[in-house]
Specification:
3 domains; 46% helix; 5 helices; 193 residues; alpha+beta
C-alpha cells in the first residue's frame, strides 16, 4: 500500500524548523494572539527541529536518543508550570476583583479545554481586566472549574504582583497542572527505562 505522506525524522525536523520560524515571525510582527508564548514555542520548535534534522546524521545509539527525548521533553513540560509558579510567587498583595468570565484556549466539545479566570479590578485609578496566572485544564464536556467556584459579577479575593499589577493569582498554593503531570511521567520514564 502506498502511503500519502512518508515522513522520516529529517523531514519532520525541517517541518518543525519552518513552523518555528513562522511562530517567531508572527510574534515579532505582533500578529500572534500571545506574542511572548508564540516566540517561546517558536524557539523550542527551532531547537527540536534542528536536533531532529541533525541527529540522524550523527552515529548515535537510538536508545540514547529516545532517553534524551524523554529527558528534554520532561524538563520542558515541568518548566512551563514552574515558570508560572515563579510568577505567582510574586503575587503577594491581597486585593478585591470582580469575576468576569473564563477565557478558554482551543475549546472543543469532546477534547480538553485550557483556560483562566478573567477579573476586573482597579489599582491606583487604573482599570485592569486580565486573565489570572492560575491556568486549569478540564474535559471540554464538563463545566469549567472556575465557573464552579466563581459567579460573574461577584467580588473575590485575588493577589496582585506589586511590581506589575497586570499579574495576579487566585491563590498562593502550588498547583500541579497538566504540563507538570505529563513532564513528570516523561521524567519517570527516563529514570525507569
Amino acid at each position: 500500500m502506498n502511503r500519502l505522506f512518508n515522513f522520516g525524522i529529517t523531514e519532520l525536523g525541517i517541518l518543525l524548523v519552518v513552523c518555528g520560524l513562522v511562530c517567531i515571525l508572527l510574534a515579532l510582527t505582533r500578529r500572534a494572539y500571545s506574542p511572548k508564548a508564540s516566540f517561546f514555542y517558536g524557539i523550542l520548535m527551532l531547537i527540536f527541529g534542528g536536533l531532529m534534522w541533525l541527529l540522524p546524521r550523527l552515529s548515535i545509539n537510538r536508545e540514547f536518543l529516545s532517553r534524551l527525548g524523554l529527558l528534554l521533553g520532561g524538563v520542558v513540560l515541568v518548566s512551563i508550570d514552574l515558570v508560572n509558579y515563579y510568577k505567582r510567587l510574586k503575587c503577594t498583595v491581597p486585593w478585591q476583583g470582580e469575576f468576569q468570565e473564563v477565557s478558554t484556549y482551543g475549546r472543543r466539545k469532546s477534547g480538553l479545554s485550557y483556560g483562566a479566570a478573567i477579573f476586573h479590578y482597579w489599582v491606583d485609578g487604573v482599570s485592569y481586566q486580565q486573565a489570572s496566572l492560575d491556568k486549569r485544564c478540564w474535559p471540554g464536556f464538563l463545566t469549567s472549574p472556575f465557573l464552579k467556584k466563581f459567579t460573574a459579577g461577584n467580588y473575590y479575593s485575588i493577589y496582585l504582583d506589586p511590581g506589575n499589577p497586570r499579574n495576579f493569582a487566585l491563590s498562593k498554593r502550588f498547583h500541579f497542572g497538566l504540563f507538570s503531570f505529563a513532564g513528570l511521567i516523561m521524567l519517570a520514564s527516563f529514570v525507569l527505562l
